[in-house]
Amino acid sequence: MEIQLGVIEARYADMIWEHEPVTSSELVKMTAVEFNWKRTTAHNVLRRLIDKGLFCNENGLVRAVISREEFYAKQSRQYVEDAFAGSLPAFIAAFTQNSKLTPAEAAEIRRMIDRAEEK
Amino acid sequence: MGDIFIKLLNMSITAGWLILIVICVRLLFRRMPKWINCLLWGVVAIRLICPFSIESVLSLQPSAEPVKVDTMVEGEILPYVPSIDSNFTIVEDMVNPILAETFSYQQSESLAPLQVFTEVAGYIWLCGVIILFAFAVGSVVRLRLNVREAVRYKDNIFICDTVKAPFILGIFRPGIYLPSSLNEREINHILAHETGHLRRKDYLWKPLGYLLLSVYWFNPICWIAYIMLCKDIELACDEKVIRDMNFSDKQEYSRILLSCTTGRRLVLACPLAFGEVGVKERVKNVLTYKRPAFWIIVIGMVLCVAVAVFFLTDPAEKDELPVISEENQEGSNSTEEPQATVTESDGAEESEESAVSEESTEPVFIDDSLPRRYDYGDPDGNGVTEYAVITQMGSQPGYDGHLAFYFNDECVYDKDQPLRVSPGGSRYIDLDGDGGKELFFTMNPHVNSMPLMTYVVLKHTEDGWKELNIPQGADELDNAFPISVRYGNSKNKVEITCEGLEEAIVLDVTEHYEKFIEKFKDSGIPANQWEAILAGMNPEGGSYSAGDSFGSVAAWGIWDIDTAMYDGKLCLKALHGIQGPYGKDDMLGGLSVCFDFDKEGNVHVLGMEFEQWPY
To answer: Do residues B85 and B209 both lie within one domain?
Structure first.
């Protein structure tokens, strides 16, 4: 089964693999330094990694369930971002927002770009 | 709450016209750079934020106050019966009668149906505001939770796994949040766009627009305006980014726009979510963008200024206080209109009001005795209209009236009047020279034959408003000054004096009576009496002597009173008719007495002027 990791999750996981077995409070300190994360954030992301089956937490001590080499061997290099629940509210300045395109529409726009000529 | 709602309703209607104009301008001038569109939306925002506006003859707004809580019906104001003022009489004639009927009420009801309606509407409005506000707060909280695990990339730029699309969050220290899965190329262009947003301060304008929308949510035009604002902001930001790009860079930017939209997963099409520009439109805009010529920008700025001048201003209001100048001294006669009578904020109704003041010398038969409110303008100029509530009892002349005067919404005078009255004008000026201003207002009792104007002067003291003493004759309606009209010392001379003044005015009435006789020769007075008139004016041969009473002040008392200047001093000027002994038609002329008050509140006569009225 393919498990997807975001770029930052991956960095965190690498950090844990490098230092495991490690206490969760140690992890909190390390992520505070590395990512400037709060305690709760470090725990939340750790929980996600644990749920994905990479690590386990026994009484505050975090261990690897699967080794780093084993894990990456199983993955393809295609990262898929986790979409957060809901879309961006309208009053947020963004790059693009919530529109979705059919493959046909996307293709049409791609054609429009490729065929455009300088005026 | 109801008042707030009505005020916002009016503001949104006036802004609505402006929004329609901006939409037209956007349609007509599509080649304009989009930042000019954003300026136009800025003008709209000003209109929606400011409760006040400048008056200008250049204003193209149909009305400063489209929905009125009181209605003008045949020169009278009905409180709490709504009406619309759109400057389109056709529309008004259709809608206003329906409104008047729907919201009519009896005096006995404690609350007019309109008051109930606006209160309820006000609370519904408030609920809408709270809902929209809560939604915004909730979204922001949700976003903040999601970016807790973001990691700083550089300065105020963060990378986050859980972010699908790049955005800016925060008002005071805005941060740019990027998805972690972008490659180098994409990051550069996207950062350029987001930095563009930062420099244009869009992270402020968009929430501001949303805030205004949550206040004016009940007006659908505002939703349209907000959607267009968001579009224009995005397009303007794109334009800022690609301004200096070569064509192939622009193509690349477009590709990145496209790929960010589709994401790695292509999903089924769904309609544009609220407040967005379609990717197709943005790509088209980018690919066809040309740096605007200087003259296009100039036209754009001119348009912005024009829109602001024509639609940020309100139509000019009727002038309420005429300028007191030297000319006003030269005696007024009874045909001059009392100034600043029933006033309304819309100039279009001016002619109706003049009609009221001229008709007020004749009894106006009103079938019911509802207390009615009459505006007296704003003599102290503080924006709060002064008004009187007048009750007329009975439907025949000779019945009582009652007037209560409200100065800045405080009742300062509340008395029965000896007759039914129509409203006059008001002034707020210093009449006793103590540095503080007194309130002066007039009424027109409904009398037959001769005109009558009664007046009240109120002074504000520590113990409240005090009515200053004014001359009062034998009759309740006689407010004339103590003026005497007597035989003079020589032939055909008449002397007019006023108590408190040393000088007398001496008239030669020869010509007057020659013409009087000529005019009334056929009126039925016997011929020998005519001869007797002129002969009788001789103090040597007649049966009267100098100093005997000759004529009198004409009924009923003061015909007209208003402020004036006497010897450079601000005062009140009361016009009296001076009548000879031969009846109503024997009018010698008009005597104006100028007076003010001393520190004790007593009348102090300054002088008088006489104007002969020729036949």
So the answer is: yes
